[in-house]
Design goal:
It is built from 18 helices and 23 strands. The protein is α/β, with parallel strands linked by helices. β22 and β23 form a beta hairpin. The protein binds glutamine. Glutamine binds next to β19.
Amino acid sequence: MRKTHFIFVTGGVVSSIGKGIVAASLGNLLKNRGYRVTVQKLDPYVNVDAGTMNPYQHGEVFVTDDGAETDLDLGHYERFIDESLGRDNNVTTGKVYSTVIQRERRGDYLGATVQVIPHITDQIKSMVIDVAANSEADIAIVEVGGTIGDIEGLPFIEAIRQLKNDPAVSRAIYIHVTLVPHLGAAGELKTKPTQHSVKELRSIGIQPDVIVCRSEKPITKEMTAKIALFCDVRPEAVFSCPDVPTIYEVPLCLDEQNMADYVLEQLALEKRMADLSAWRELVAKIKQPSRRVRICVVGKYIEIKDAYLSLAEALNHAGIANNVTVDIDRIDAESVGSEGTECLQGADGILVPGGFGSRGVAGKIAAINYARVNNIPFLGICYGLQWAVVEFARNVCGWQEADSTEVTPGTSCPVVAEMYEQKGISELGGTMRLGAYACRLRRNTKAFEAYGQLEISERHRHRFEFNNRYRMDLEDAGMVISGINPDRNLVEIIELRDHPWFLACQFHPEYKSRPSRPHPLFLKFIEAAASAG
Ligand code: GLN
């Protein structure tokens, strides 16, 4: 049996302290040392996947090549370890229970009372081991969502506790990422919450091997010693992970403290030389002051930072490669609808991202129109493509009734309509056109110029599409169809010829952008925005 080394990552004190970035950063450092690494997220919520949660609840939904709607941490993992992950890299309580219940109905446990321990925990364990085995990883990093002490997290914590002695596990260590708060009035960092969190972890049977302290400022040697003493770890096992100007600096910050070496020693794996020069260069470029480019993102969830996470990262990656700093100006689509496009004045580029439903649509159309008429570089993504088609149909072709059936089901001019396969689907979870699909590009287009190849593959997440019935008329009016899905003849990319850079795609290019490999469409969009400014 193939044996994998495991690193289990848990969180303490509060959530949202960047546990996923710590896990991803460690993955980056280990991969850099020549180890095959995979990262998995165990999410204790009862939803089967993140697809049915809105961005207010959960930030963005990250889509994998194999069409899973997952936790946004998978995006961090992909960007930091530069590997594409799949649906099994995200396990939720909902997924575990639905599998166990199906098996129970099938009679797999015939005679037994099905219980949290061992049936639920065994299912979690097999889902963890399978991912490690299928990816042929030397090291699997497994992050448990939520915070130690959460009731719903308990079966997962119990499962990772048991895994230490599982025959499929070579060696396992536990990393606890915890908050060390800074008390303004006292001017001090406080270790007590960490002590309590570790106490809680130990009461469930897990002794952490490594503690990562998230704090505003670096923690001192004395604090390290104190945490080591109270939490029963060696001082070398306590790492400081202070706030840094860019998340891409976290691997460097941890490497300076020799975290990867310490972890490898604990796993009884050889320490190997790392070469972080390329990553270091990337971070230096991010921090180096450069010309700023203002990109207006006209969407709905502007107050939620994580709602357009991959999008923001993709814009940043493209900025780094173009030697500019991208200032993302999040603009509320509803206010553009009610107050007009004045707020878009001076924009170097306008982006309309993915979305659902009627709220904010008028503002999105107004923003698209503003970009088209004023020759401002424009990138439309998914819903952004659909409303770009409607805007063009209404204002260039003069079809006043042009609409999407998502918003106006009975429209007499459905230029965007429900896909054939979608008709009659009543369940909303996991039923969209999801994951990677092929797209064939047309020569002499902006899309072809960006990608430099004819066949591409991109990730999708939508129910509605460009209606081919109107294709010829739209082309006659000046719309360029530059990307087509070859299997189903679906329009995937549109652009405008008489415009400096106006392109919209039905897929989500942001999911595939990596810091070291910016996405071609973002690269060209930012290049156009930078040269326009
Ligand atoms: N609401 C649109 C659809 O379902 C677009 C989805 C999206 O932007 N991801 O087709």
